Amino acid sequence: MKKGLTQTEVAEKTGISQPYYNLIENDKNQKPLSFYVVEKLARVLGCDVKPLLKAVELSQLEYKREAVRQFEKRLGELSLPHLPKIPIVKEIPAEVPKKADDLSVKIIEGFFRIKLGDPAVFILKVSDKSMAPEIKRGDLVLICPSKIEKVKNGDIVAIRNNKGDCQLRRVTLYRDQFILTAENSAHPVLVWEAEEYELKIIGRVKGTMRYL
Length: 212
Fold this sequence. Notes:
This protein is of the alpha+beta class. It has helices spanning 7-14, 18-25, 35-45, 49-77, 194-197; strands at residues 85-89, 108-113, 122-125, 140-144, 156-160, 166-174, 177-181, 190-193, 200-209.
């Protein structure tokens, strides 16, 4: 009004449509304004742009928070409670589970709901840095229990021996030896004799999850 401009004139000078400018002026736009639009409006109307940009930044942050809240609400409305509970274990189990329910309750520290076809799949919370940076401490790795013949050279596996030693390593099968390689050079290569150690490959890593 001070500039003596109509909505149509302001819209033309800023390069936005008149209906959109009408929504802005009446505070009816559903999404926060972009910095680009605010700068153009400030220039045309002769306003100090700095407080406007700050207001837009806060508006965009609140919009994103609300989007997250709505997303979480929609997730809660889905059939998540009906998805199978995949156990998160804090150590490599002693036996290869035929189904996740076979895992010892003592090593289970939580559950993750996800749709998977294999009832024996479980999640291992990594406790060391032997496979860093590919797999870091605290990462959750999806373990697919499998027989030795299903494991290929180069697979990352959860393996243990009869002496109670458990490892998450990249495996190479060589005759009667299992060569276990770490990604972290600070951890030595292990050579386990199959006959001496009575080895059990609990499963191979099928995926990794990391909380950012």
